[in-house]
Amino acid sequence: MLGPVILAASRSDRMRRLVSAAPVTKPVVDRFIPGETVDQIVPIIRELTDQGLELTMDVVGEDITTPAQAEAARDAYLELIDRLKPLELGTRAEMSVKLSMFGQALDGGHELALANVRPVVEAAAGIGTTVTLDAEDHTTLDSMFAIHEELRKDFPQTGCVIQAYLFRTEADARRLADSGSRVRLVKGAYKEPAEVAYQQRHEIDKAYVRILRTLMEGEGYPMIGSHDPRLISIAQELARTAGRKLDEYEFQMLYGIRGDEHLRLAAEGHRMRVYTAYGTDWYGYFMRRLAEKPANLRFFARSMVSKG
């Protein structure tokens, strides 16, 4: 199983230096992260939305060690929102945020993250869109869910992410579905111990379907975060069974993976949102994309051989 090895490498400073210095890295990274600045990403936003796709934008970066860095992350999102305003895309371009970027792991991190993310959520609402709080490792989730609940008091469209491989997620899904929340369901991309998470792919897939059924039958808005053709078909069937219209749920996939499928689903009338990351601190995000799917790792390996 290479996935856990790659996830461990995503936390290694030595591996970060080696991968970042490799001449072949940037062309491969560009497949998943199409820009480092707002100026570079705005044309990508225009291109994707012109194709009938929607977006959730992620300013990459996780290793926050000071309050000043957390404030800089907040300001990066505020800059993005300012640049989105004249495009008048509304909810066709939302934001995804990791609370670790907003200082969650620092002293007093829960309060600091809430204080930093609130103006981002408020600014997003001001241009007619919203924010989804990304899930990180299991130790951060109680704080994330508490911040999500607090933000929804004033901004009820604020979404959150749940991860199918965690044992706790079925209960979290029932609570969120009952409260009418926007919820993105993913399989999970962090290295979690067997005490808290399923380790086998077939167990994770079965949990994903159980949780998705709960979301489809609930009062909220399900967002299906998966590239798996079988799970996409199951999601469509669950939506039909639950009586959901095409605008009452959506699919979400990563930029750079299965682009033809993005367009196919959009052409069929589905809401298809592309998770699009940008920024200079790309290493952790990139390594998790390699760990999620063997094909991504093979793509990277072939590039290293052909360019080496």
Automatic annotation (TrEMBL):
Catalytic activity: L-proline + a quinone = (S)-1-pyrroline-5-carboxylate + a quinol + H(+)
Pathway: Amino-acid degradation; L-proline degradation into L-glutamate; L-glutamate from L-proline: step 1/2
UniProt KW Amino-acid biosynthesis keyword: no
Cofactor(s) this protein requires: FAD
Proline dehydrogenase domain sequence ranges: 45-301
The keyword NAD is annotated on this UniProt entry: no
Top-level taxon: Bacteria
Listed EC numbers: 1.5.5.2
Protein's UniProt name: proline dehydrogenase
